[in-house]
Amino acid sequence: MMSAILDIELIRTFHAVARIGKFSAAAEQLHKSPAAVSVHIQRLEAVAGGRLLNRDNQAVSLTALGKRLLVSTTELLSTHDRVLADLQGTHLAGRITLGVPDEYAVHVIRDILPVFAAAWPNVVLELKTAPSYTLREQVARGKLQTAVIAQPKGQPSADTQFLVSTKPVWVGPASVALGPADPLPLAIHAAQCPYREAMMASLKDNGRKIRVVLESPSNQAIKACVEA
């Protein structure tokens, strides 16, 4: 016989605190008071049968039980919101802030925004473009509700959901002839970009010398440099 029920709002509060790492910032994102957030966590801990968070003056971290609960309820929360959206349909209203890396912005604007606007005309989707590492930080601080980010393969985390795998390729003008010992002229993304990290690791493994022609967070700037 079931003796306890997981309240979806308690789970949502728990996920916000786990993702952001601070009660005050999570409370701001959830439009609740810090005291209300604390009560939600206490109620969820009572149901879970143990402490979910380690608390100190700087931030909070997950206990072993908290990590288990976060992983176990991620799909539950996603399914709940998806079912609710299907039931409510066009009655949904509000604003969503979505972060998108520059390299995916054109696809989102051209292919996804029109479909989203048609399905939920009363929901305003606000896009913000930035490098993936910046978007992750903004989500963690509660500045963005969600974001599409690129990260190296093999680095999953409980607060992310896998969407698609990409395979970067080398692109350059066919007319340029370089010898094995010639420095390779590169247009590269800004530091902390996963594509840049993969590129530099590959070049290092192969002992190839490089010459940086352009370093920029803009995908369009890099494309223009390669095409020049």
TrEMBL record:
PANTHER family: HTH-TYPE TRANSCRIPTIONAL REGULATOR LRHA-RELATED, TRANSCRIPTIONAL REGULATOR. The keyword Membrane does not apply. Belongs to the LysR transcriptional regulatory family. It comes from Pseudomonas amygdali pv. tabaci. GO terms for molecular function: DNA binding; DNA-binding transcription factor activity. This is Transcriptional regulator, LysR family. Keywords: DNA-binding, Transcription, Transcription regulation. Residues 6-63 form the HTH lysR-type domain. The keyword DNA-binding applies.
